[in-house]
Amino acid sequence: MLCKPKMSGRELDFIKPALAEDWAVPMGPDVNEFERELERLTGCADKRVVALSSGTAALHLALIACGVGPGDEVIVQSMTFCASTNPVAYLGAIPVFVDSERETWNMDPDLLEEAIKDRMAKTGRKPKAIIPVALYGMPYQIERIMEIADRYGIPVIEDAAEGFCSRYDGKLLGTFGRFGALSFNGNKMITTSGGGALICPDEATAQKIKWYATQARESYPYYQHEAVGYNYRLSNISACIGRAQLTVLDEHLEHHKRMQRLYCELLNGVEGFTMHSAPTLLPPHGGYDSNYWLCTAIIDPEARVKGEDEAYSSVISGAVGGAAGVTHTAASATTDCQPNNNVEAMRVWLDKANIEARPLWKPMHRQPVFRNSPAIINGVSEQLFHTGICLPAGPYVTDDDVRYIVDCIKAGFC
Ligand SMILES: *Cc1c(COP(=O)(O)O)cnc(C)c1O
């Protein structure tokens, strides 16, 4: 249902002057402005932001800047979208997956420390970086994660792609670790149509990231290359869209939080269906301030949902999210790790009512492509995947839509 980005109505006000001045290139004035605006949002005097072509590119360059290379190990939250992990594989490095805790569904700090010790004992080397992920916008336990990372001297790369403008103790996600990756893909909190950014600790590091992002050109009158670079800068036209989107950022954030409040209110007391909400922290902490990019819930394994006996009876034709029209036909209707039948039945039930609900992200340690990676596991992420569901909360979803969705959910239980 209505799963597309919402424009601010001001995009052309930024794009037209840029086109009139022939700024349809990367590194135009709007890229600079967009970066300065994002820097102001971080609320940090020293941090510098580099606008890039995607959140995936931001993570890739952050890993390079942390010195990650072939054979190195990088600790990654298992419960995430593949883009958190793929850049580790691009570099020939090995992801080490760490499971989640139940409060935020993000990286479990106790398991993180266990993973560091385990890898040091088995390989004699420390992992090169740690990537916690703000799943669905929810802040991770960053205070504990930073304490552990600092104690072992391992840099943290925050994957705040889904958590743009989420906060922990009032501080913006992406500003705690050495790096913070943001995404402005079409489905994220704000969009540049496709794009991302990397929050860097200082000017010198930002310069290095920009250098890598523009094919690593040395300062000579001719093209001289002493490292392998990338074509990862954001185009000026995309930055124009981003600048326009920032003018409605607060409205977007307010919308997503409102969707969450409404779902919680209307689903309160519905047996077998539990919304996932931010944990409450006691003072002096300001607590977990999620942007609620996606609203998520758990369906009790015991709950009976209409049609669950026919769940997974046929191969579906399209990949999740439409995958931009790309279909890669599945070999079978089921895999050895999938959502419970009642979750799939609820997805199908809502789909028939024209509501697009989705399963949660499938943990990386259960993805065939990463089957050989080490994993420090407590069962939480797999249980979340078996029982969880994402509900529509995009910018075009109205209060009435939420009421309709909730009525359909209630009607879906036997
Ligand atoms: C979207 C996303 C990314 C990557 O962002 P792109 O801009 O799409 O490359 C990285 N990590 C997570 C968790 C994401 O959801």
Write a concise synopsis of the structure shown:
The protein contains twelve helices and 14 strands. The chain has helices at about 10-20, 30-40, 55-65, 85-90, 110-125, 140-150, 205-215, 235-245, 250-265, 340-350, 380-385, 400-410; strands at about 50, 75, 95-100, 130, 155-160, 165-170, 170, 180-185, 195-200, 275, 290, 295-300, 375, 390.
Q: What series of H and E elements makes up the topology?
A: HHEHEHEHEHEEEEEHHHEEEHEHEH
User: How would you describe the shape?
Assistant: globular
Summarize the biggest pleated sheet.
4 strands, mixed
Strand order, main sheet: write it out: 1-9-8-5
Number of helices: 12
Which ligands, by name, code or SMILES, are bound? pyridoxal-5'-phosphate
Distance between the termini: 24 Å
Strand content: 5-15%
Class per helix and strand makeup: alpha/beta
The radius of gyration is 21 Å
**Quick check: average pLDDT?**
93
Describe what this molecule looks like in 3D:
By secondary structure, this protein is α/β, with parallel strands linked by helices. The protein has twelve helices and 14 strands. A four-stranded mixed sheet has the order 1-9-8-5. Strands 4-2-3-13 form a four-stranded parallel sheet. Strands 7-6-11 form a three-stranded antiparallel sheet, with no helix packed on it. A hairpin with a 2-residue loop joins β6 (167-168) and β7. α2 (29-42) packs parallel to α8, α5 packs parallel to α6 and α9 packs parallel to α12. The relative contact order is 0.16. Residues 54-56, 80-81, 83-84, 133, 159, 161-162, 183, 185, 196 line the site of pyridoxal-5'-phosphate.
